[in-house]
Amino acid sequence: MSYYSGLTAETIEFQGHKGDKGEAYYARPTGNAKVGGVVVIMHMPGWDEWIIETTRKLAHHGYAAISPHLYFREGTGSPDDLGARVRAAGGVADDTVMGDVEACMKYLRAQPNSNGKIGVIGFCSGGRHTYLAGCRLQGIDALVDCWGGNVVVDDPKALNDKRPVAPIDLTEKITAPLLGLFGNDDENPNRDQVNRTEAMLKKLGKNHEFHRYDGAGHAFFNYSRAPAYRGDQAADGWKKVFAFFKKHLG
Amino acid sequence: MCSYIVEKAKLFGTAKGPGSEWMKVDTANVYYDHPYEAQLDHALCVDFVCEAQGGRERVAIEISRESALELIEKIKAALASGDDAHSKAAEAQCSLAGSQAEVAALF
Q1: Does the CB of A154 have a partner CB in chain B at under 8 Å?
Q2: How confident is the model at residue A111 (pLDDT cuts 50, 70, 90)?
Q3: Is there a domain that residue A2 lies in?
Q4: Do B36 and A227 touch (CB under 8 A)?
Q5: Is A43 within 8 Å of B6 when comparing Cβ atoms?
Q6: Is the ipTM of this complex over 0.95?
Q7: Contact at 8 Å (CB) between A176 and A140?
Q8: Do the beta carbons of residue A47 and residue A70 sit within 8 Å?
Q9: CA A151-A153-A155 angle, 5° bins
Q10: Which residues from B are below 8 Å from A77, CB to CB?
Q11: A192 part of a folded domain
Q12: Model confidence over B27-36: pLDDT tens digits?
């Protein structure tokens, strides 16, 4: 058997929140082995090439990974144009994102390659969505929050119809183990907010591990953005992600 | 930071990008955040759109903070020098109009 197994990747249609038909990128290892599934929640800029490549990376490491296009309701267009429209509209509602993520979990479980385990990983706003999914959705076996901002909301004005609750206030409901990766130079979440999130997790006895990286800010995995990318920290972070998924998803 | 903070400026005008037709614009969505394309940690981003026509198309820029401040100053300077030049032109036009009337009276 080859050291590197092959993978199959394609854009698929899925039924998201309220049955809306959207598209998602689905990548999985070839072969008949039963594998864990991972929902990859995109970052705020959009369903871009880096997110697609990250989804394939998960498949390359042995997981069936699916990344829903959270901006599909904006119609067709380039990822950056759709992202700009969503930003101008104030973002996507939490309820909608949770519906889409739940639908992707259901999709993964329905595949013949599923071992029944589901992880969720998200970046930037997707990190926040991951934390929120851990609080609101049932049946998640592992959570990876990569620098999700606004888990802690210091300004009540930041809460609105689309994002009515600060995720940290729902922490009691988390049941899955949570891995958090953060850059110490990040502004959102900043060090204090990360500390407060971890303090809440500890206080409530939640299974978690947080790792903080010096010399890194927001999005330090993202090699398509040179000012943000930090190679050493990213390499270590990915090792922690895969060790975490190995432990909880198989 | 990645935020949903957007300042909206109401505009009247047109915009054009490479390979595109001129489009009416009535709004500029302005934000200072991580850019999509520019290799900057943060950028001043402006999306020129026409909300009256659905706001689906845009002409966009992502520039550094320093560039944005420079642009603000140059916009102010261009408006000031333009106003000055246009007011002189208006005076000259009045003067020319008077001359034309005087010449016409000779015939």
Answers
A1: no
A2: very high
A3: no
A4: no
A5: no
A6: no
A7: yes
A8: yes
A9: 165
A10: 56
A11: yes
A12: 999 999 999 9
pLDDT over threshold 60, residue A48: yes
What are the helix (H) ranges across chain A?
A: 49-60, 79-88, 94-110, 125-136, 191-203, 231-249
Q: A196: domain CATH number?
A: 3.40.50.1820
- Collapsed DSSP state (helix, strand, coil) of residue B91: helix
Is residue B45 a contact partner of residue B22, using CB atoms and an 8 Å limit? Answer: no
Chain B residues in contact with A187 (beta carbon < 8 A): 1
As given in the structure block, the two tokens for residue A48 are: 């871009």
- Phi/psi zone of residue B54: left (φ > 0), alpha (ψ -120 to 50 degrees), beta? left
- Residue A244 vs residues A43, A167, A168, A185: alpha-carbon distances, Å: 21, 22, 22, 24
B47: distance to nearest CA of chain A, Å?
8
Instruction: Say if the Cβ atoms of A45 and B29 lie within 8 Å.
Output: no
Residues of A in contact with B57 (CB under 8 A): 81
pTM value is 0.90
In percent, how much of chain B has pLDDT > 70?
Answer: 85
Q: Does B34 touch chain A (CB under 8 A)?
A: yes
* Residue B88: per-residue pLDDT: 80
Residue B48: closest CA among chain A residues belongs to which residue? A84
Q: Hey, is the C-beta of A90 within 8 angstroms of any chain B C-beta?
A: yes
Total domains in the fold of chain A: 1
Which of A51, A76, A81 to mutate to probe the B interface, most B CBs <10 Å?
A81
Cβ atoms A188, A117 nearer than 8 A? no
Per the structure, the complete domain to which residue A159 belongs is given by 7-249
Residues A245, A228: contact at Cβ < 8 Å? no
